[in-house]
Description:
Strand order of the largest sheet of chain A: 2-1-3-5-4-6-7
Shape of chain A: elongated
Mean pLDDT of chain A: 95
Number of strands of chain A: 15
Helix content of chain A: 10-25%
Order of helices and strands of chain A: EHEHEEEHEHEEEEEEEEHE
Number of helices of chain A: 5
Largest sheet of chain A: 7 strands, mixed
Oligomer: homotrimer
Distance between the termini of chain A: 49 Å
Amino acid sequence: MFPIVTLLTDFGTADGYVGQMKGVILTHAPGAALVDITHDIAPQDVTHARFVVDGYWRRFPPGTVHLVVVDPGVGTPRAALAVAADHRFLVGPDNGVLSAALRHEGAHVVSIDVPHGASPVFHGRDVFAPAAAALAEGTPMGQLGAELRAPVCLDWPVPRPNELGQLEGEVIAVDRFGNAITNLDGAVAAGARVNVNTSELGVLRTYGDVEPGQSLALVGSGGLIEIAVREGSAAQRFGLQRGTKVTLLRGVNGQP
Amino acid sequence: MFPIVTLLTDFGTADGYVGQMKGVILTHAPGAALVDITHDIAPQDVTHARFVVDGYWRRFPPGTVHLVVVDPGVGTPRAALAVAADHRFLVGPDNGVLSAALRHEGAHVVSIDVPHGASPVFHGRDVFAPAAAALAEGTPMGQLGAELRAPVCLDWPVPRPNELGQLEGEVIAVDRFGNAITNLDGAVAAGARVNVNTSELGVLRTYGDVEPGQSLALVGSGGLIEIAVREGSAAQRFGLQRGTKVTLLRGVNGQP
Amino acid sequence: MFPIVTLLTDFGTADGYVGQMKGVILTHAPGAALVDITHDIAPQDVTHARFVVDGYWRRFPPGTVHLVVVDPGVGTPRAALAVAADHRFLVGPDNGVLSAALRHEGAHVVSIDVPHGASPVFHGRDVFAPAAAALAEGTPMGQLGAELRAPVCLDWPVPRPNELGQLEGEVIAVDRFGNAITNLDGAVAAGARVNVNTSELGVLRTYGDVEPGQSLALVGSGGLIEIAVREGSAAQRFGLQRGTKVTLLRGVNGQP
């Protein structure tokens, strides 16, 4: 079986930076199967990249190498990480974008040695791509660099009770459709309602439970409560962005 | 030879939904070669997706599995289809997006059983991706679900003669370049002219037959008459969109 | 090892043109590994495509076939090229987009015979894709067509001294981040300053050498001087586009 290397960047594709990285990977790991996750992360948006990585890294088969390059600190003394966690590998900058894997039980982290002559403005090509290829080829982590004890780990905000005893969360991501994903756990929300920017919405099952153009809440595919408009944009309708407060109201059965 | 699985969605890539689907496919069909068609279909635009699918599904080798997820009705009682037609497989929602394959002689259709625990808002990941992987691995259609008798089949509008006896068609797609593809068959159009929004254009051979910035009609790569502007946008110039009427005028040789 | 075929176009993906090309390649070269470089080149922007090709074509392993289709002259008498250079193959229109490979020592060029029945508006699918697949399968260049003596070769503008003896270059590309890549060689620029639209910027090492929002010059990953704004767009800040003049000033050590 060929090794899988996935790629996530904020480079877009039109300037060929990703193309150069792919060339480097295939030169060092000629049998690798390259899988594009996305190159359309907004420039420098580590938070959204982290949201996306959280969603896919464990869905790939054991042995997969995930290359993640959203790297505003390229060329500064921030470390370049290789992480082994849950039988997958991840490679990316030490800015929190790999937090989910770093927190995974038994995660092993090294600080990748920067090769002599690496461009200080393109570690994606000169540091991360070769490291990903090496891992794909079976190189032991220890050969990439020394163990790192305290990589940057970021947390998602945690919902907290407000003065009325209601759970107050917030939007953590807005997707292409304008759906707003919150940090409110969908497990506690069946039959509940949410309040967002003075509008109150029932937590339903799927978009088709309302008419086109109508709004609703639902439990998203990641298990979190989402605000949506059927065949429309909830972000636009309700003015939602990362950080917008969303409050979980009492459920119809009187339970919060 | 490895099995090929192509992917078409309206998900964009930036939110990782497609990444999750790819992980699921490669977990269930580890040797599959993933081929991106597009993830940039406008949200919920089943019609354009159908236009695109029509163009590529039979151009891939026998055995290819085409995953097509433009699915405004996700989670509703609409069926999830697996189709075997002309030695290819297609997987997608029962909303007409697979019409071309469904109409193909000898097409075999099943309604995919929705796995227990599937997210009602992400059948792409939890229903269609596993089904595509299963087909790629050689699973017989019958193991995915029961035969479906009357899937949704959509037609393209058919050109009709107007009161002057001219064939009146319409724009069925506008592409990235602003070329407007009509439903007028190019086979009958050599030497003809078309009328669109009061402008009259000759049906020429290729863009280079006029100067940059000039407009023309031509027979597109799918065999249909197209309205174009060389190195410009016909859609913008003439105000064209899906449904805009385009009339085939008498040819220069006096034939319609 | 499977043969690698990379793809660069200005087609976007949403209309399925690239999907059709992929189907054709995999039909003719069933074991090929397809690698997307980009399909987001601005329509007909041969210059930017050439900039991108320059950056990646030699970074892929020997034997790789690069398919490059930015082709405003499709269907006109412009030749369709196959190039063998430095153990790689390139296929694309004779409009200069393959100049870097054409200039490579020992480059061998043929004019691809256009197959009977090829659409005059989609050589990407009907001429270039089959040729790329044939090369991937090991078909000798000579079987694709006759040798071509004088393909179109484009040069990048060369910096020249101005009346003050300063080297005057220009912007040759603007990337997604708004970084402006110039034709000034970074090798001579360490410790120097540049002048662009009346602003003067020091040539530093990397983005992180200034605060977020501040501007700088640096030596880009291709070895050329770049104008940048940390976590911002230099193109926007300074009104930069292809052709904007950039002057290399005396270095801090008194050397130009």
